[in-house]
């Protein structure tokens, strides 16, 4: 029986593997290629000799009922385990095939297949217990019901992970390839794997952070997918201007600033409107504060806006502004709010640095001063 079983296995293995390889070469789909690489045919070939052994044992051990029952149980248990292995190789091939498709590449395929495998394994374990102990399904289920609390405690993380995987997928919270930031776990990088229990993130320093899947719905995290899908990446940064350097502009100051091309037309138009307004109302301009006036801070804001609107690296179709924020003890914040047309990290940082290099150098032209914290030095007695 053993010799014939080995011969049947060799023949079945050769035929199935050869047939699967020939089929994989002739078809365009990659699924059968993945079945070959996962050795599905090798495991499936064992079913034929097992079927032969199962039907041969009762004939060989016809007068040995005790040993016949043991061998029959062993063969049936092995068949159940073998079927689980075959299903596992098919699911592995299906996982690799779905991940190769663009529309499934960012889905948590591992989580779903793990749930299917856990369910089938649980069913297989129940069948094996029933075979070994010759137990009825009702009795076994009653026993499992009595220890359900322990089972739930053991598989708590698995159950929570399964629920989280479904919610993450249905709500489209995270995809494979998304850049996420989760400060609690020190994660800041791209998602490379989503499975039933964990989410793996490759950080930008090439380290790997493992996050429990359930934490994605129980804790807060930041997903940068919206920024990557949008036309631009936001630049939001401010500088601090000393408040005592802000003043009204006199005629000589305006004439001097007209030499700056970006604001020449603005100064001419704005000055004409202000002079007309003051003249119509007989404003006494011997005191500069009377009537309407231009300030060096306001003109500087206009200059920055013009500079940004002409800068080639800025996305012109999105919000672009230079705004004044609430004054602070360290000065008056002047914030630049715009969007970089290039979202790549290196180019984004270069564009932002280039803009602020120019702004820092332009501040003195408007008789403004940047705030710099200086620690007071106590005089020493000599």
TrEMBL record:
Membrane topology note: Multi-pass membrane protein
Cellular localisation: Cell inner membrane
Gene Ontology CC, one term: plasma membrane
A GO BP entry: cellular response to osmotic stress
Residues passing through the membrane, by range: 6-24, 70-91, 112-132, 138-155
Keywords, comma-separated and alphabetical: Cell inner membrane, Cell membrane, Membrane, Stress response, Transmembrane, Transmembrane helix
Residue ranges constituting the Mechanosensitive ion channel MscS domain according to the UniProt record: 157-225
Listed InterPro entries: LSM_dom_sf, MscS_beta-dom_sf, MscS_channel_2nd, YbdG
Gene Ontology molecular function, alphabetical: mechanosensitive monoatomic ion channel activity
Main localization (coarse): membrane
PANTHER family attached to this UniProt entry: MINICONDUCTANCE MECHANOSENSITIVE CHANNEL YBDG (PTHR30414)
Name recorded for this polypeptide: Mechanosensing system component YbdG
Origin species: Flavobacterium aurantiibacter
